[in-house]
């Protein structure tokens, strides 16, 4: 790649070991790599009628993913990936608080805030 752009001294200016052009090309490709997987589904599904059963089913996906991530962090240790039922007592109690707040408010943001505050306060006490 260096030989391809060797005639452009301003774009291939060396700053230590870093090359400005290389970083710009990486940033542009990363932007396309992040943009394309988001754009094509919107383009494809914006003209199609989505069945009602699919919309009902999709409502549960964020909650289930969030729950899977939280439960994994509470009950699985990073050292050896073992199941530990009571390894993080403050996080278990905070998860119960989150479930109560989520049930009554139906708000993801309020649930996350309650969980963060609960973990913080319980980690000071427990």
Automatic annotation (TrEMBL):
Out of the domains of life, which is the source? Answer: Bacteria
Q: Tell me which UniProt keywords the record has, alphabetically.
A: Membrane, Transmembrane, Transmembrane helix
The record's annotation in Pfam families points to: AzlD
Please verify whether the record's keywords include Transmembrane: yes
Q: What species is given as this protein's source?
A: Limosilactobacillus antri DSM 16041
The opening ranks of the lineage are: Bacteria, Bacillati, Bacillota, Bacilli, Lactobacillales
Residues passing through the membrane, by range: 20-40, 60-81, 93-122
What protein name applies here? Branched-chain amino acid transport protein (AzlD)
């Amino acid at each position: 790649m260096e030989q391809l752009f060797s005639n452009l001294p301003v774009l291939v200016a060396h700053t230590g070991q870093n090359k400005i052009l290389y970083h710009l090309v990486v940033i542009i490709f990363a932007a396309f790599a992040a943009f394309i997987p988001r754009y094509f589904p919107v383009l494809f599904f914006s003209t199609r009628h989505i069945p009602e059963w699919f919309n009902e089913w999709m409502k549960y996906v964020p909650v289930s993913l969030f729950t899977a991530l939280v439960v994994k962090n509470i009950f699985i240790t990073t050292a050896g990936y073992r199941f530990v039922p009571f390894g993080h007592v403050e996080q278990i109690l905070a998860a119960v608080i989150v479930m109560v707040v989520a049930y009554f408010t139906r708000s993801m943001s309020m649930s996350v805030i309650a969980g963060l505050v609960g973990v913080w306060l319980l980690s000071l006490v427990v």
